[in-house]
Amino acid sequence: MEEERLNQAWDYFVAGDLDQARSLMLDLEEVLGESFSFLNLKGYLYLADRDIESARFVFESYLDLARQVGDREQEHIGLHQLAMVYREQADYAQALALIEEEAACLEQYFSEDKLKWSVNHYEQGYLRLKMEQASEALPWMCLSLEAALTGDDLVAQACAYRGLAETYLALEQREAARNHVIKAKSVFLEAGDYLGAEEVEDLLANLV
């Protein structure tokens, strides 16, 4: 019953109804407060409220719990989510350190999981891009796309194309940027991710 209500809270969050998501979260905290899905939702809600310190505390707790129980899947997720918090603070160096720590976890426990690698490589590239290291970001974005194309996750592929477009734009290679934006939009639409397609449309407008 509680898990169903937690799933409903996630549905509210995804739909943008944050008040309903918060209400359910508060009701469920006593029962599910130590579950990974609950902590993940709680952290995202704090981020939505721009309460960065609380979000960081939640994802630090998430990571600590994963390590206590020896759950490597949740450990790599916790590292990734905590990096996201530091990225929101514009502390890109600390975020990158956590993403590199996640990469070490992937190498040891999930070395054949191409989707996990695609997401990790994307973040490695994106954070370098945010640190104005576009030349260093480019090979990571290429690796992200290469890994994504080995699977059938269209959103991962579209994100990699978008990341390459942003990187080429930063490198002032406008034609390459435009080609990758067009590809990203096409794949987002194929995946049914219309918000993603709309966001890259804004990027395309800068390349006309």
From TrEMBL:
<protein>
    <recommendedName>
        <fullName>Tetratricopeptide repeat protein</fullName>
    </recommendedName>
</protein>
<dbReference type="InterPro" id="IPR011990">
    <property type="entry name" value="TPR-like_helical_dom_sf"/>
</dbReference>
